């Protein structure tokens, strides 16, 4: 039987003998041995997507600031933010402020039971109220990020200072969001 084994540095044609070591690296025993090198393969580097980080690095950075119900959702926030061209730090900062998912107290019921991470209004209403209910956390996160893009980014509102007057009544909202942005960046 002939096959191909991908190595960190080359592809090899394989035959029916046990392979124990390739390029000084131990590999699991198989029924193959490298008999002929056929091409050099450069390791494929992940592209830089935001702030000098790859998508996985960005997701890990975001995960450092996400707790409770939002734990482990960094990749979803990172990938959708990059796709839409949204600052992921700003998006997460708004979520941390609006949901209470910013410490040991856990997230609000709006997040825990209705998967609404952005305080979005709409039907069906969470607990019969005016805030929207989503069928999953993923749906709620995607809807929030699309709302942030469509209603703010698409019309040139891309910072806490420019979003604040439209998003929130509080005059200190932008300062609080910037505090969370710095918190996320430092984690």
Order of helices and strands: EEEEEEEHHHHHHH
Using DSSP, what is the number of strands?
Answer: 7
What is the SS-derived class? Answer: alpha+beta
Please compute the radius of gyration using only Cα atoms: 23 Å
What's the tally of helices?
7
Which percent band covers the strand fraction? 5-15%
Q: Terminal Cα separation, in Å?
A: 51 Å
The average pLDDT value, as a whole number, equals 85
Low-confidence stretches: 1-24, 26-32
Spatial strand order of the main sheet: 1-2-5
Write down the oligomeric state.
single chain
In a few lines, what is going on in this structure?
This protein is α+β, with helices and mostly antiparallel strands and 187 residues long.
What does this structure look like?
It is globular and about 70 Å long. The strands form three sheets. A three-stranded antiparallel sheet has the order 1-2-5, with no helix packed on it. Strands 3-4 form a two-stranded antiparallel ribbon. It has a two-stranded antiparallel ribbon with strand order 6-7. Helix 1 crosses helix 2 (74-84) and helix 6 (160-167) packs across helix 7. The longest helix is centred in the last third of the chain and has 15 residues, at 137-151. It contains seven helices and seven strands, in the order E-E-E-E-E-E-E-H-H-H-H-H-H-H. The protein starts with a strand and ends with a helix. The protein has helices spanning 55-63, 74-84, 88-99, 109-114, 137-151, 160-167, 173-186, and strands at residues 3-6, 10-15, 21-22, 25-26, 33-40, 48-50, 53-54. Mean pLDDT is 85; it is low at 1-24 and 26-32. The chain has 187 residues and is α+β, with helices and mostly antiparallel strands. A hairpin with a 3-residue loop joins strand 1 and strand 2.
């Amino acid at each position: 039987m002939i096959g191909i084994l991908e190595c960190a540095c080359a592809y090899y044609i394989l035959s029916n003998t046990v392979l124990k070591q390739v390029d000084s690296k131990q590999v699991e025993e198989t029924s193959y041995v490298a008999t002929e090198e056929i091409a050099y393969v450069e390791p494929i580097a992940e592209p830089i997507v935001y702030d000098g980080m790859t998508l996985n690095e960005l997701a890990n950075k975001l995960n450092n600031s996400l707790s409770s119900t939002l734990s482990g959702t960094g990749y979803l926030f990172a990938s959708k933010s990059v796709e839409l061209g949204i600052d992921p730090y700003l998006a997460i900062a708004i979520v941390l402020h609006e949901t209470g998912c910013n410490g040991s107290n856990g997230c609000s019921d709006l997040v825990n039971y209705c998967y609404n991470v952005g305080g979005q209004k709409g039907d069906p209403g969470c607990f019969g109220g005016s805030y929207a209910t989503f069928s999953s956390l993923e749906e709620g996160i995607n809807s929030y990020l699309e709302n942030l893009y469509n209603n703010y980014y698409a019309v040139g509102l891309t910072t806490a200072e420019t979003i604040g007057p439209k998003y929130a009544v509080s005059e200190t909202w932008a300062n609080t969001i910037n505090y969370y942005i710095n918190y996320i960046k430092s984690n």
